[in-house]
Specification:
Layout lengths: L4 H23 L7 H17 L23 E3 L9 E2 L2 H14 L7 E7 L2 E8 L2 E7 L5 E3 L2 H4 L15 E9 L2 H13 L8 H9 L4 H5 L4 E10 L7 H11 L7 E4 L2 H14 L7 E8 L2 H7 L9 E5 L9 H6 L2
Parallel strand pairs: 2-11
Antiparallel strand pairs: 1-6, 3-9, 3-10, 4-5, 4-7, 7-8, 10-11
Helix pairs in contact: 1-2
Bound molecules: nicotinamide-adenine-dinucleotide (NAD).
Protein name: DNA ligase
GO biological process, one term: DNA replication
Keywords: DNA damage, DNA repair, DNA replication, Ligase, Magnesium, Manganese, Metal-binding, NAD, Zinc
Length: 330
């Protein structure tokens, strides 16, 4: 029994508020609070649920992937659920993640691959006999939106692979480069249309168009970062998988590093935190993944996120006002 009634009330208030923000963000591509403010609400909910586990419900936002499947698109099932990532906000959280990984793999050596966390929209691409046949959003993780026709307009997505792999599903991030985002918002401002809050929302809004000509005009790109499903032998490690994806013709971000321990991971994260604004696309953190696919499988996942990966979120920058400020600070 929870003796503290305030805890229960607060949990309900937080859930209502988070559901409302999820709808604005995932369904309307129009968030009304900053991501760090949202993360703070989520963290508070997690902390209360950790203290009072009897308050955890299956529909709590802490237990589910936050996306939606919009009407107007055909919904398609994912072969393997597309999960979210749990978050780390500082060095201590990263060390805690490393401790959990080692506790679950006692006595084993673990190496990590550290990648840029591209601030875009997760996509899943299916290839049959090397041909692109289906593209989908993450949606709620179980079901995504079929956006194949829109993804066909994105030039960085190969329509045919260099090898006739019988079946492969590849996952990655679709994003809008900063200069395209700036131009799009300037045009919208001139036309008196509502501005996109950030490149992530602009990319999501552009991909979830019922008219693919609009998507085609938006200059989107992709970085692919994982094999979701492969008929046949897997490449053994995540970094070998990335190299193979590149050989197959996918655009893979060159900025990633294999690290032998958490200290090296932290140093690489700090390095990118200092130069995040130098990139022509927005990143909101780093993603740390156990490299061995066999160890990944043994670590498994919760309903919401894999235990073998974590997102390190950069601290928020001060509030910005003009479009130009936004572009310099995303
Ligand atoms: P997330 O964005 O924190 O992390 C998971 C996602 O990271 C993956 O689905 C993938 O799309 C992406 N990603 C980028 N680069 C990657 C890489 N190299 N490897 C693996 N994944 C990579 O989780 P989420 O569930 O998509 O979104 C939750 C976050 O969205 C929140 O933490 C918050 O910042 C934001 N959000 C904001 C609001 C708001 O109102 N402001 C509302 C909902 C969510």
């Amino acid at each position: 029994m929870v003796d503290d009634c305030k805890g229960k009330d607060r949990v309900e208030a937080l859930r209502r508020e988070i559901h409302r923000h999820n709808y604005q963000y995932y369904a309307l591509d129009n968030p009304t609070i900053r991501d760090d403010e949202y993360d703070q609400l989520m963290r508070e909910l997690l902390q209360i649920e950790e203290k009072y586990p009897e308050l955890v419900t299956a529909d709590s936002p802490t237990q589910r992937v936050g996306g939606v499947v919009q009407k107007g698109f055909t919904s398609v099932p994912h072969r393997v659920p597309m999960l979210s990532l749990s978050n780390a906000f500082d060095e201590g959280d990263l060390r805690e993640f490393d401790r959990r990984v080692h506790n679950n793999l006692p006595g084993e050596e673990v190496s990590y691959v550290v990648e840029l966390k591209i601030d875009g929209l997760a996509i899943s691409l299916w290839y049959e006999k090397g041909m692109f046949v289906r593209g989908a959003t993450r949606g709620d993780g179980e079901m995504g939106e079929d956006i194949t026709v829109n993804l066909r307009t994105v030039k960085a997505i190969p329509l045919r692979l260099t090898e006739e792999v019988p079946f492969i599903e590849v996952r990655g991030e679709a994003y809008m480069p900063k200069d395209s985002f700036l131009r799009l918002n300037e045009a919208r401002e001139e036309a008196g249309e509502q501005l996109f809050a950030n490149p992530r929302n602009a990319a999501a809004g552009s991909l979830r168009q019922l008219d693919p000509r609009i998507t085609a005009s938006r200059n989107l790109s992709v970085f692919m970062y994982a094999i979701g499903f492969l008929a046949g032998n897997n490449p053994g490690s995540h970094d070998k998988g990335l190299a193979w994806l590149r050989e197959l013709g996918f655009r893979v971000n060159p900025e990633h590093k294999v690290c032998q321990d958490i200290q090296e991971v932290i140093a690489y994260c700090q390095q990118w935190q200092a130069k995040r604004f130098d990139l022509p696309y927005a990143i909101d953190g780093m993603v740390i993944k156990v490299s061995s696919l066999e160890q990944q499988e043994r670590l498994g996942a919760t309903l919401k996120s894999p235990r073998w990966a974590i997102a390190y979120k950069f601290p928020a920058e001060q509030a910005v006002s003009t479009i130009k400020d936004i572009i310099l600070r995303v």
